[in-house]
Every structure is written in structure tokens, then in C-alpha cells.
């Protein structure tokens, strides 16, 4: 946490770093999608590898959140409880991630003969429709005003896992 920053913003500030990385990775995939059909085999493999990395990083991030962060937050913030808003958003996103992972695995062995940029675009759009609203909702939930409203103390904030 930066010196002088609000202790109630601690989780928000840490989460932003992860979320910024996810947004950046997604933007990379979208930015290079139009030219992906004309990439050489090695460059297409790198592109597909970046898609696989995004899937892996999001899944790992969600596993950590659902195992350590959300249960702690759910004590005072019902939207983080098992079966509530943020966990349900993860489930929707995981369905899109599974589609992307499966397509990347299918395309990687012989990417030039299997890969279809139109299909990749549809899958990325589906993922984005789940990803971006979730990131925004989670960030909003973790802002200092909402942490205070939920009744967290500064001491509790310092002990929350993240």
C-alpha cells in the first residue's frame, strides 16, 4: 500500500493490479485478432499461447479468491458468499474460459489448418461479456466506501487475505 493511502482501499488497490493485467491481456488478443489469420505458424502459436496464459491466470486468480479472499469478505459482504453475485460471475466466466481453452488446445498442434479467427473472435467476445462486468463489479465492491459501509475496521482490513 502506498504511504498515505486509505487503509480501506487496500484490497481494491491490490486487486486493480491483477485486473489491469487481465484487461491488458484481453486487449492484446483483440488487437491482434484481425491479423491473426495471416500470422506465420510460430507467431500464431505465440498468440494462442497468450490466450492460454489469460485462461490460466484468470483460473488461478479465481481459485485464490474463492478459497481465501471471498470467504473472509463474505462475513460482512453477502455478495462474496458462496452462491452469491461474485461467485456466480466466476461460474459464467469459467464457462467462457473453458471454450477458449478448448479452442486454443484444438488449434495449437496445427494452427494454420485449424485456427479460424472468426471463431476466436466470437469466443473472445463471449469472454469479454463475462469478464469486464465482473471486474467492474468486484472493484466497486472493494472500494473504501463500501468496505466502511460493510463495517470493516482498519485492523480487520489489515488482516484480510490478499
UniProtKB/TrEMBL annotation:
<dbReference type="InterPro" id="IPR012312">
    <property type="entry name" value="Hemerythrin-like"/>
</dbReference>
<protein>
    <recommendedName>
        <fullName>Hemerythrin-like domain-containing protein</fullName>
    </recommendedName>
</protein>
<dbReference type="InterPro" id="IPR053206">
    <property type="entry name" value="Dimeric_xanthone_biosynth"/>
</dbReference>
<dbReference type="Pfam" id="PF01814">
    <property type="entry name" value="Hemerythrin"/>
</dbReference>
<feature type="domain" description="Hemerythrin-like">
    <location>
        <begin position="12"/>
        <end position="143"/>
    </location>
</feature>
Amino acid at each position: 500500500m502506498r504511504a498515505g493511502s486509505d487503509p480501506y482501499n487496500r484490497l481494491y488497490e491490490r486487486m486493480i493490479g491483477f485486473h489491469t493485467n487481465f484487461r491488458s491481456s484481453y486487449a492484446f488478443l483483440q488487437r491482434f485478432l484481425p491479423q491473426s489469420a495471416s500470422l506465420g505458424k510460430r507467431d500464431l502459436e505465440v498468440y494462442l499461447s497468450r490466450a492460454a496464459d489469460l485462461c490460466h491466470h484468470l483460473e488461478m486468480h479465481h481459485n485464490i479468491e474463492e478459497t481465501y479472499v471471498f470467504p473472509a469478505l463474505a462475513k460482512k459482504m453477502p455478495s462474496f458468499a458462496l452462491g452469491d453475485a461474485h461467485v456466480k460471475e466466476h461460474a459464467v466466466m469459467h464457462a467462457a474460459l473453458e471454450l477458449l481453452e478448448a479452442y486454443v488446445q484444438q488449434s495449437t498442434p496445427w494452427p494454420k489448418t485449424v485456427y479460424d479467427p472468426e471463431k476466436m473472435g466470437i469466443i473472445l467476445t463471449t469472454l469479454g461479456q463475462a469478464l469486464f462486468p465482473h471486474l467492474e463489479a468486484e472493484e466497486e465492491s472493494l472500494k473504501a466506501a463500501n468496505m466502511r459501509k460493510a463495517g470493516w475496521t482498519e485492523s480487520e482490513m489489515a488482516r484480510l487475505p490478499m
